[in-house]
Every structure is written in C-alpha cells, then in structure tokens.
Write a structure and sequence with these properties.
Blueprint (H helix, E strand, L loop, with lengths): L4 H10 L2 H12 L15 E4 L5 E5 L5 E3 L2 E3 L5 H12 L3 E4 L14 H13 L3 E8 L7 E4 L10 H13 L5 E2 L11 H9 L3 E7 L9 H17 L1
Parallel strand pairs: 2-5, 2-6, 6-9, 7-8
Antiparallel strand pairs: 1-5, 3-4, 7-9
Helix pairs in contact: 1-7, 2-3, 3-7, 4-6, 5-7
Length: 230
C-alpha cells in the first residue's frame, strides 16, 4: 500500500518539490517556437523505471496541429519527470517542437516510442497527463472514451478517482471529450498494444507550483498513490 496522504504531503514539504518542479520545467520543457528535425535531434525525454505504470506528457512543450503551433500544457512535463523520480515508474514527455502532435497524428513517432517502451518495460497501465484551463468546471478530468480505454478494468479508474478524492479533489469529471478521438494516445495504446490507459486532464490551478504549492503537492500525492497501487 502507498503512504497515507498526510505522510506524502510532509515528505513533499521537506524536499522542496516546488522549486524542483520549476527547475525541471526550465531545463527540460522550456517553451520555444524553434522547430527541430526529429531525425537529427531527439524530441522526447524518457527515463526507465521499475514499476509497470508508464506516465506520459505529450504536450509538455508547444506542438503543431494542422500546421498551427499550439500552446503547451504547462508543467505536465515536470509532473511526469517528478513522478519518475518519486515512484520509480517509467516516463516519457515531449521536449522539442518537432512538427507534430502526439495526441492527434497517425502515424506518430511519439506513439511508436511508447510502443517500444511498453514492450521493453513490461508496462501494464498508462497514465497520459494533459492540462486544461482554469475556467474548466472540474479539477481533474478522467478520459477513457466512455470506458473503452480501460479494457473492462474499471476497478483501476475507481482506484485513481478514490486517490484524488483522498487528496482533497472534489471536482472530478469523467471527461467524455478527453481520449475520445481515435488517434489519441490512450486509444492507440488500448487498440494497438492491448494495455489499459487513462487520459488525465489537470486544471491549470494545480499546475502552478510557485503560486499554489499545496495544490501541486496534493496533485503529485494523488498521482503517486495511484501509480504505487496500480
């Protein structure tokens, strides 16, 4: 079993996790409109792990969709980086603007990399981390394409929801739009790899560690507890 919520929060307060998140974001996930050639420069960050749960942040930096540059989901890259460090789970995130959108493209080099990782790391579950604006009516949205990406393993979704509730998140949505398009990462993982996945949409108010340190702690705590129990 994972640590109790209050124990994890104390652990975070002692480890200056907010400063670490800001530093990670600056070093690995800085925002730029400079495009790189993925055949010449690696556009993704990856770290191996010992747990069978992969965390992913495909929109950690700016990306292209239909020939337009889209804004990044701020601090989602830092979140998966920290989850890798704190739990030992494998993690992948986009670090460069390479001309594509991992959650839209087919074919897609990000999804191909995930397939390689899942095979090598013996991954059993994937948490695909995204962000939504402050104005959304929920704190956390759990996208499963109306349950299809769970591959009947609904208990896993219940576990994730329970952990978010345990860390004080009351506005949890089973966000139907998230993961509903056929080429989302969650749908790809389920359809092509036979692995259950959830697309997690996080409200921006919890993705600002400097402005909302306690909220950021709670977010990481809920995700850590879920990864350890999944």
């Amino acid at each position: 079993m994972g640590k109790k919520p209050e124990d994890i929060l104390v652990e975070f307060n002692r480890s200056h996790i907010n400063e670490e998140a800001v530093n990670v974001e600056k070093v690995y996930f800085y925002k730029t409109d400079k495009r790189v050639n993925p055949k010449q420069e690696e556009p993704f960050w990856f770290s191996r792990g010992k747990l069978p749960v992969l965390v992913s942040a495909p929109h950690a930096v700016r990306y292209y969709r239909q020939k337009k540059i889209k804004m990044s989901d701020q601090f989602t890259g830092a979140i998966v980086y920290l989850l890798n460090q704190l739990t030992g789970c494998p993690a992948i995130a986009a670090t460069k603007l390479y001309g594509g959108d991992p959650n839209f493209d087919n074919p897609c080099i990000y999804k191909e990399r995930i397939a390689e990782i899942c095979g090598r790391e013996k991954v059993k579950f994937v948490l695909d981390i995204h962000g939504v604006a402050r104005e959304r009516e929920f704190d956390v949205g759990l996208g499963t394409n109306v349950g299809k990406t769970l591959l009947v393993k609904t208990r896993m979704l219940e576990l994730i929801e329970h952990n978010f509730q345990g860390f004080g998140f009351s506005r949890i949505s089973h966000y139907h739009f998230a993961a509903s398009e056929p080429n989302t990462i969650a749908n790809y993982i389920t359809r092509e790899l036979g692995i259950p996945a959830v697309q997690i949409e996080i409200n921006k108010q919890y993705r600002v560690p400097a402005q909302n340190p306690k909220g950021f702690h709670r977010l990481l705590g809920a995700l850590m507890a879920s990864i350890r129990e999944l």
